[in-house]
Design brief:
The complex is a heterotrimer of chains A (253), B (224) and C (226). The two termini of chain A are 33 Å apart. In chain A, α3 (100-111) packs across α4 (116-129), α4 crosses α5 and α5 (145-157) packs parallel to α6 (175-190). In chain A, β1 and β2 form a beta hairpin. Chain A has nine helices and ten strands. With 253 residues, chain A is of the alpha/beta class. With 224 residues, chain B is mostly helical. In chain B, 40% of the residues are buried. Chain C is mainly alpha-helical and 226 residues long. Chain C has one domain (2-214): MetI-like (MetI-like fold), CATH 1.10.3720.10. The chains are: A alpha/beta (253), B mainly alpha (224), C mainly alpha (226). The B-C interface holds B 60-61, 64-70, 72-73, 76-81, 158-162, 164-165, 172, 175-176, 179, 185-190, 192-193, 196-197, 200-201, 224 and C 4, 60-61, 64-70, 72-73, 76-78, 80-81, 110, 113, 155, 158-163, 165-166, 173, 176-177, 180, 185-188, 190-191, 193-194, 197-198, 201.
């Protein structure tokens, strides 16, 4: 049963005006896997992730979660689907008018319909799990970038998602704050969370990913296990990109 | 339908009569108000403490007290001091002083937002004070004050209707008189409303033209 | 001169009662303007094309037609024709409210648009419907940022309330004129009325500033920062 496919995405196409950002991308992911999307800016990684949870409506393409097809036309189904898919943004996107604890609580209370006490308790648990229980009553404006991202991870986890989508979670962070966020993500991997992550963090990906998917110009150019991709990549473009990234960012840990 | 058409024979002449008075009210008030505003704004931005205090008191009073109360003071109140103004004069004075206070806010803000450094640079280059004012200060001040002052002029078109309340019969006054005689309140006031809407829309459009004509990159911050 | 002072002192309680009427009119107008204004703003930002057009027409109309004309139109015209019998007081609140809604909608619209669009995205990513996202994430922030604009709107509505005197509502202006025509002490009495309006403006603006401080989000003064 660990072999069954949790999320399947087929032939996603998306154009913004005249620009074809995604030209037909498919991928699938099994329970507990970590797949990393890599590639230059403009490759369509962010758009792909946002198409998966329909924040951006794809022009073509279908999505299946645990075997059932997601009918995006039915609002109710769409909201239910999004509860099961967690998203982490590059800009954190914490709700600025709510404290850290309230940010986690709001999804539980307003979307899942838990009563206030249960929501608050669960929120506190999630906050502790990312190591920020001391900052429960601080507002986003009072938190550092790394802390904000950890709260946003707690907020997504509180919803008990089946899959997590991470859109360059550390790209907006100062270098010294990247480590704390990667530590949290590493914990998620260890606990078996299914994740698709777009990132430039080569060291992290090499160590933990089950598969690297290299994208360019709205298409998947090459994909494979990290060992193969980083040392023995078939495609010239992939090798060039990986070399450049290693040079720029170095090892994350 | 034909009563309505026949009706336009009565409504249109009355409206034209009233419109003429409205325009005669608006134009002088706009000009005088603007002049007062620019002078007061400049004084509040660059004057010494005493002058600033007087100007600030003027602005606080004339922006804080309702226009209606001000109009009543000029028309009904001045006779107390043995000054008798006709409704038209009282209206123009009232509108000018009131809108002048609002204009001065925009002008003052515009002048204060011009970095002093530019003025120093001009003087350092050898400009006389007069040259600095006319070639550096005023062109920028004008552009920054334009949206606010322009809007104030548009408000003036609307507020001119209050002249009716001190018996100066302009467009709204004519409409009220006609409506009281014929009891066709809804049609007449709807029509008057549309006339004002047209006037306002034309004025806004003209303002936009002026703004576009004088626009310089970096000054478009007011556009949203 | 002394008769002027006497007249003002004698009439003062009567005028102050008028202030209560004025305040009632202003509050009624601002609250109804708030409710309608929020609906219009949300419609203009998030609604479909026809909704957006409708709101723009509404705003154009109620910001373009003079207050006095609208008061006459509604009081003597529309409500008469529709055989609805409302007091001048009620009509004043309705008309001032409709106009204020037009202006307030633009204040709220500006505030909503100034929020980073990541806020709405994050709300939807959690599975919130648009209605929930707007109610629990967008509006709480937008309304806080609208308070300065709202404060400005208050002083405008306060001054416009003097115009409803034309319909016979017994607010400050009406009472002042009433006493003045009987005592001939026009100037002193109008000065007293002006003073009352200044006091009401000051108190109201102060109260709103206190409200702004009370609901302030710690560390967050402007959207897009921090």
């Amino acid at each position: 049963m660990a072999d069954e496919c949790i999320l399947k995405v087929e032939n996603i196409k998306k154009a913004f005006g005249k620009r074809q950002v995604l030209k037909g991308v498919s991928l699938s992911i099994r329970k507990g896997e970590l797949k990393v999307l890599m590639g230059p800016s403009g490759a369509g990684k962010s758009t792909l992730l946002q198409c998966i949870n329909f924040l951006v409506t794809p022009d073509e393409g279908e999505v299946w979660l645990e075997g059932s097809h997601i009918n995006r036309a039915r609002k109710h189904d769409l909201y239910a689907y999004r509860q099961q898919v967690g998203m982490i943004f590059q800009d954190f996107n914490l709700f600025d008018h709510l404290s850290a604890l309230d940010n986690i609580e709001i999804g539980l209370a307003r979307v899942k319909g838990l009563d206030k006490k249960a929501a608050r308790e669960r929120a506190m648990v999630e906050l502790e799990r990312v190591g920020l229980s001391d900052h429960a009553h601080h507002y986003p404006a009072q938190l550092s970038g790394g802390q904000k991202q950890r709260v946003s991870i707690a907020r997504a986890l509180a919803m008990d998602p089946k899959v997590m989508l991470l859109d360059e979670p550390t790209s907006a962070l100062d270098p010294e704050l990247i480590g704390e966020v990667l530590a949290v993500i590493r914990n998620l991997v260890a606990n078996g969370m299914t994740m698709i992550m777009a990132t430039h963090q080569i060291g992290f990906s090499r160590a933990l990913a089950d598969e690297i998917i290299f994208m360019e110009d709205g298409q998947v150019v090459e994909q494979g296990p990290p060992v193969k991709m980083f040392s023995d990549a078939v495609c010239e473009r992939t090798r060039a990109f990986c070399a450049k990234i290693s040079e720029l960012y170095g090892e994350a840990f | 339908m034909e009563t309505l058409l026949f009706f336009q024979q009565e409504v249109i002449p009355a409206f034209l009569k009233g419109l003429r008075v409205s325009i005669l009210l608006i134009l002088p008030s706009a000009v005088i108000g603007l002049v007062i505003g620019i002078l007061t704004g400049a004084l509040r931005a660059y004057g010494n403490r005493g002058v600033r205090l007087v100007a600030d008191v003027y602005v606080t009073l004339f922006r804080g007290i309702p226009l209606v109360v001000q109009l009543f003071m000029w028309y009904f109140g001045l006779p107390y001091l043995n000054i008798y103004l006709n409704p038209f004069a009282a209206s123009v004075i009232g509108f000018s002083l009131c809108s002048g206070a609002y204009h001065s806010e925009y002008v003052r803000g515009a002048f204060l937002s011009i970095k002093r450094g530019q003025l120093s640079a001009a003087l350092a280059l050898g400009f006389t004070k007069l040259q600095m004012v006319t070639t550096i200060l005023l062109p920028q001040g004008f552009r920054r004050a334009l949206p606010g002052c322009g809007n104030e002029l548009i408000y003036l078109v609307k507020y001119s209707s209050l002249a009716y309340m001190i018996t100066c019969i302009e467009l709204t006054g004519e409409a009220k008189i006609l409506a009281s005689m014929t009891f066709r309140y809804t049609e007449i006031f709807f029509a008057v409303g549309l006339v004002y809407l047209v006037l306002i829309t034309i004025a806004s459009w003209l303002l936009q033209l002026v703004e576009d004509r004088f626009t310089v990159p970096g000054f478009e911050h007011h556009k949203l | 001169m002394p008769e002027g002072v006497v007249a003002v002192i004698t009439a003062f309680p009567y005028l102050v009662q008028g202030s209560l009427v004025t305040v009632a009119v202003v509050l009624g107008a601002m609250v109804s303007g708030l409710v309608l204004g929020v609906l219009l703003a949300v419609g203009q930002v998030y609604g479909q094309l026809w909704v957006r057009l409708l709101v723009r027409v509404y705003v154009w109309f109620f910001r373009g037609v003079p207050l006095l004309v609208l008061l006459f139109l509604f009081y003597f015209g529309l409500f008469s024709v529709l055989d609805i019998n409302l007091s001048a007081f009620t009509v004043a609140i309705i008309v001032l409210g409709l106009i204020s809604a037009a202006y307030q909608s633009q204040i709220f619209r500006g505030a909503i648009l100034s929020l980073p669009d990541g806020q709405f995205k994050a709300a939807r990513a959690l599975g919130m419907s648009d209605l929930k996202a707007i109610s629990f994430v967008i509006l709480p922030q937008a309304l806080r940022f609208s308070i300065p604009g709202w404060s400005n709107e208050y002083s405008i509505v306060l001054k416009d309330s003097a115009v409803v005197f034309a319909l016979g509502v017994a607010e400050i202006m009406a009472r002042t004129h009433f006493v003045a025509t009987r005592t001939y002490q026009y100037l002193p009495l109008y000065l007293a009325a002006g003073f009352l309006y200044l006091v009401l403006t000051f108190v109201g603006v102060k109260a709103l500033r206190m409200l702004e401080d009370k609901v302030r989000i710690p560390g967050y003064s402007r959207p897009g920062v921090g």
